[in-house]
Design brief:
- The protein is mainly β and 378 residues long.
- Helices cover 6% and strands 47% of the residues.
- A hairpin with a 7-residue loop joins β10 and β11 (176-186).
Length: 378
């Protein structure tokens, strides 16, 4: 086992920092939608749990397991961004053979109009082995830091991917902290992402798990805590100002109202843990927001709708519950629930979503799961 892999294994949930992050924030097939307020525009009639997305494409890049899975559309397809990614191979019976350590971020390209399952990814790799699209700065030793991918966007012929820098300061379960968030830029979708340093500093005032473009703005959704309340915060920036940290504005209340002062920000939606995903659904003619689990509902994924990115969003209008077991293990938590509009079918009447299952006694071995959600016809 490599030194890097040994360092990951010293943690209680090795390679699953997203689980710990989701829980920290939560502290402040064939299933049907759970009981929830019924809204005519969003009534789930069927869920089809397709299983793990791991396939031959992962094997070709020496990917054994990973979490995350946020995506953003680019010319020719969509970039998918994953978190902690462990390298190696699998035996004929599926048993993982870990070798070569891990990277805390990886990306892959899913070709345009490639709606096959499992997804036929092309990974960003070197000599057929997955590598991170980000590089650490000289004062960021790899054994001490992680880079987690956030939301991305293609704008003005360039590709942008936000990220969180995480500092690990011990071997305990909670011995890590956020060191800030930044923005990466690439001319090619599946290429290295340069970590921007405007004004000599890589830090940006947003940490979005979702970025969408609407009405001449980029809207950025993230989970934040205000006092003891966690929920969705919203920021915006003009597309041509995305690289300027001083150009971002922050949602301060209904109206909508925005301010250039981040300390004036308020929550867009309350009581939302973990990560959040937002996509336009042409069938509903509404934006859909997906959020994952909390301690009280560890396998639940919730959905909200709104006519505009800034809401009003209201309460969840539908919910699904993921299976009790995935990939042969008991599911302790569903996290990183991400919508993939590039895979929506029938004009959005069938939505595609992935989630990462926190699996009991799985160690390093666990991959994203995919589910299709069919809405009631008019």
């Amino acid at each position: 086992m490599s030194a890097r892999l040994e360092h990951y294994s010293s943690l209680r949930h090795p390679g699953r920092f997203f689980i710990a992050l989701a829980l920290m924030i939560a502290l402040a097939s064939g299933s049907t939608a759970l009981s929830a307020p019924k809204v005519k525009s969003f009534d789930i009639i069927r869920t089809n749990f397709l299983g793990s997305v791991w396939n031959e494409a992962h094997a070709r890049a020496s990917v054994v397991s990973q979490d995350g899975g946020q995506s953003f559309v680019v010319p020719g397809g969509a970039v998918w961004a994953f978190g902690d990614t462990f390298k190696g191979s699998r035996a004929a019976d599926g048993t993982p053979q870990f070798s070569g350590g891990a990277v805390s971020c990886s990306i892959a390209l899913l070709g345009e109009n490639d709606g096959s399952y499992p997804p036929a990814f092309t990974y960003f790799a070197s000599s057929n082995v997955v590598v991170s699209p980000f590089e650490y700065f000289t004062n960021e030793p790899a054994e001490r830091y992680r880079i987690w991918p956030l939301g991305g966007i293609h704008v003005r012929s360039r590709n942008y991917l936000y990220y969180s820098l995480i500092e690990v300061f011990g071997n305990g379960q909670w011995d890590f902290r956020g060191a800030g968030s930044g923005l990466g830029r690439s001319q090619t979708a599946l290429g290295p992402y340069e970590r921007l340093r405007p004004h000599g500093d890589w830090r940006f005032p947003v940490e979005p798990s979702q970025v969408i473009q609407a009405g001449g703005w980029l809207y950025l959704f993230e989970i934040k805590e205000f006092g003891n309340q966690s929920g969705v915060a919203l920021a915006r920036v003009r597309p041509d100002k995305i690289e300027d940290p001083d150009a971002y504005e922050f949602y301060t209340g209904a109206g909508p109202k925005f301010s250039a002062r981040p300390e004036s920000a308020s929550l867009l939606v309350e009581n939302v843990p973990g990560q959040v995903s937002v996509a336009w659904n042409p069938y509903l003619q509404k934006y859909v927001m997906a959020s994952a689990s909390d301690f009280d509902h560890p396998r639940e994924i919730r959905f909200l709708v709104a006519k505009a990115p800034y809401g009003p969003w209201g309460v969840p209008v539908a919910r699904i519950e993921v299976p009790e077991r995935c990939q042969g293990k008991r599911v302790e938590l569903a996290y990183c629930a991400y919508l993939h509009p590039e895979l929506f079918r029938n004009n959005g009447r069938v939505m595609n979503l992935t989630f990462s299952p926190g699996l009991q006694d799985a160690g390093f071995d666990g991959n994203c799961e995919m589910v299709e959600i069919e809405l009631r016809p008019p």
